[in-house]
Specification:
By secondary structure, the chain is α/β, with parallel strands linked by helices. It is about 35% helix and about 10% strand. The two termini are about 35 Å apart. InterPro entries: DUF72, UPF0759_sf.
Length: about 280
């Protein structure tokens, strides 16, 4: 996400070498979704560059490759998993969680495969699972079985809240595209671990996005008061202003809990000059 085209020269300096773009993004936000790893395991040198551009406290939530989650459906992927974990090793403590996003067809009858896969993972990492099968949201028994499988290894259930997106018909091309691709499931906001992770997508208009995240402001404040350490990712269909919105969300939480540390000052989008 730190190479998003619409941010270059507007929110982030442009031009910037590829090896400096994450460093600039990290002055806006202190966490990032590692989404590109879903499509292919990157070169280890690229991961070393990510580590070099961020402080040890920066949070990466890294998605497992689709060869493991979607093609092999968590079965018989030991070699691919070992290669992926070895490649991610340079991130060290920056790997906040490894993100197991499962396809919409992965339902309650597949929980045995998930439980076995989770039991076989090294305990050196934290894990978080995102499910999209409707039964996990509509059927209490299926939800309980999933929670038990996750609790057995202290893994988190990542909610992807799309309720604001689907609250009214789309009004932009990006929203229309999101309507065809994003899961339409009920909101879920129960934390299983001390490190809950939330993915929230609003609308392309700021007012709709801000209106829709009120529930999460309340929830995150409650989690923080309980001593949890949540990570929240704010999206819109076009993501044009996502870093600005993420900082606004953080500021609204700090209005309720001033002891929460502020985010760093963003790097100027224009190059600094001597005159």
């Amino acid at each position: 996400m730190w190479t998003h085209a619409s941010w270059q020269g507007r929110l982030l300096p442009h031009p910037l070498p590829a090896g400096e773009r994450l460093r600039a993004y990290a002055t806006w936000c202190n966490a990032v979704e590692g989404n590109t790893t879903f499509y292919a395991t990157p070169a280890r040198s690229a991961v070393e560059s990510w580590a070099g551009q961020t402080d040890p406290g920066f949070r990466f939530v890294i998605k497992l490759p689709k060869t493991i989650t979607h093609e092999r459906r968590l079965t018989g992927a030991d070699e691919e998993l070992r290669a992926f974990l070895d490649t991610m090793e340079p991130l060290g403590p920056r790997t906040h969680a490894l993100w197991i996003q499962l396809p919409g067809s992965f339902g309650p009858t597949d929980l045995g495969a998930l439980a076995g896969f989770l039991r076989g993972l090294p305990r050196s990492h934290r894990y978080a699972v995102e499910v999209r099968h409707r039964a996990f949201f509509d059927d209490a028994r299926s939800a309980r079985f999933l929670e038990r499988a996750l609790a057995a290894v202290d893994a988190e259930w990542i909610p992807f809240d799309t309720t604001a997106l689907f609250q009214r018909p789309p009004t932009s091309d990006a929203e229309r595209d999101a309507w065809t691709k994003k899961p339409r499931v009920p909101r879920r906001s129960s934390a299983l671990t001390e490190h809950p992770i939330v993915r929230y997508i609003g609308r392309d208009d700021t007012a709709g996005t801000v209106e829709g995240w009120g529930h999460w402001i309340d929830t995150v404040v409650e989690w923080l008061r309980e001593g949890r350490s949540p990570t929240v990712f704010v999206h819109t269909p076009d993501n044009a202003d996502a870093p600005v919105l993420a900082r606004r969300f953080h500021d609204e939480v700090r209005e309720r809990l001033p002891e929460v540390e502020p985010l760093p000052e963003p790097m100027p989008s224009e190059p600094l000059t001597l005159f």
